[in-house]
Amino acid sequence: MAMNSPPPPPHLRAADGSEKQVCYYYGPHISYIDDGEGHSMVPNRVAMTHALLAAYGLLDDMDHLHVSPATKQDLKVAHTEEYLDLLRNLTPTKYKHDATTRASAERHHLGVVTDIRTGCTSHDNPVIDDLWDYCLRYAGGSLTAARALVAGDYKVAINWSGGMHHAGDGKASGFCYVNDVVVAVKALLERFGRVLYVDVDAHHGDGVQDAFAEEARVMTVSFHQYDGKGFFPGTGSVDDVGDAGGAAVYRTLNVPLEAGTGDVRYHKLFEPIMKRVMEVFRPDAVVLQCGADSLAGDRITGLELSVRGHARCIRFLRSYDLPLLLLGGGGYTINHVACCWCYETAVAIGKEIPDEIPKHGYDRYYQTQGYKLHYYHEAHSSSSNVLTKKMGKVKQTVMDHLDKLSALMAVQSADTDEEPAQAVNIDADALVNRSPSGEEPIQRLYRLGGEVELTEFFIDLGQTKQVKRNKVHHDQCRVPPL
């Protein structure tokens, strides 16, 4: 079934290559983090994405931001001091040998956590080596990218290591320790009157929604898999529109989807809904959480989007020519994640890249997909009239919510002055690394020594076969995030 796509954005570089309107953040230390054997989250996927960007020559089309970890003070806009102090001082040794530390960690959903209602245990947010450093680095990436947009020199800023949308003000959740999205949005609010947050991760963006539930200048829109039963995090019903008595009611918008949605049905919802959101809310900047677990072949979800279908969300929002912050998120078949975020970087830049994956240090991970960037196509998915009808009802309900928001905003605008954009003095040039090294150690080894033996652990994680929760997780109690 053919779909009418919005026009692609213009090429973002001048003809002489002198100006770049996309900036990019990558901190190599993030890829060294290990959540433990059997855990679904593999931060190394960010290094794979970076290596693929280098192989396609896309790194030269972007300005590279300095690696700039966040500070505790930066994170206090999103988290309690008690929680941050715990994260800063928590180590595997203290967790193992100090009962008081272990109890505090469990209260904040860190380490092995037992649900007193069900008796189930989970290990979604393990106590790992270099935990505090990891939190500072991925949150710092999103904050730096947001500041680059605030400075006004770029149209798009990217941090694929960010998008940890589940963390709450005083707790970890769903593989997310600190909520870099909240930190970034609050930085954008220093200049932009209204910020729109859009989430295309397969899991509901609950942490971000909760953080801005009473903020009328922020609208959160989440497209996510939802079954009303046990799919993590269990929130995000279409009827959840925020506090009915609050000033920000209807600025919370949820679009629940069912497994097997696929590209065509997805964009029959995404595009008309987002078009109406843009008309009603009229944002000054947009944040898009690009969780890649909504892709076909993900190990723990089932929305079944193609790489092109996923990237179409970026293409659509990019067409509005507003400052756009792109963040990562979920994604557990790591070769698919790298393909998706590489292609989406190309879309942000305004380039089309070949389907054939170039040879580079990680190319063996793509053998199972025939060394093709676009490993899956919508034509492979099945049709379902029942599913189409259900989604039609969801769309109508969401559009009704947007009509109510439109009426509400008209009244509010008549009663109050509009929040103007603020003048914020940030030196964009100081954020940029003018001589970045584009070659990862794994690429250098590959170039100098030929075939590199990489661990079978990552090869196993790269398989397209979906794995049930009880084969991946210890507790067998619920489906994991992100």
From TrEMBL:
Active site: 166
Main location: nucleus
Entry binding sites for a divalent metal cation: 201, 203, 293
E.C. numbers: 3.5.1.98
Keyword set, alphabetical order: Chromatin regulator, Hydrolase, Metal-binding, Nucleus, Transcription, Transcription regulation
Catalysis: reaction(s): N(6)-acetyl-L-lysyl-[histone] + H2O = L-lysyl-[histone] + acetate
EC class name: hydrolase
GO MF terms held by the record: histone deacetylase activity, hydrolytic mechanism; metal ion binding
Domain Histone deacetylase: 39-346
GO annotation (BP), single: epigenetic regulation of gene expression
Binding, substrate: 124, 174, 332
Intracellular or extracellular location(s): Nucleus
Cofactor list: Zn(2+)
Gene Ontology cellular-component terms listed: nucleus
Recorded family membership: Belongs to the histone deacetylase family. HD Type 1 subfamily.
Name recorded for this polypeptide: Histone deacetylase
Organism: Digitaria exilis
Native organism taxonomy: Eukaryota, Viridiplantae, Streptophyta, Embryophyta, Tracheophyta
